[in-house]
Amino acid sequence: MIRHIVMFKLKEFATPIEKQDKMQEIKTRLEALKSKIDILHKIAVDFNINPTETWDLILTTEFDSLKDLDTYANHPDHVEISKNIIGPVKIDRACVDYEFSDEVVDK
To answer: Within its chain, how far is the Cα of 91 from the centroid?
Structure first.
């Protein structure tokens, strides 16, 4: 399986409430993709709680393959959110994609 993790740094907002509202909108819109994109196994958007760190929010998604990740990335609903909701407020983005097994490993 493939895990796709993206971290976003957002622009400065006029107020903390305005920023929180935008972050919540991003979370709600992205997590709603679960019901629209059938190859998407898991999606979660979480907020950074440490004010000394760089990133504001993190997106975690899981797929069967890199091909499925590409399908998700190019899905019209995902593209619309990326361009029209996140794009105007994003100042930086970092991403990692890695393969993992969902088997439990005892240490």
So the answer is: 15
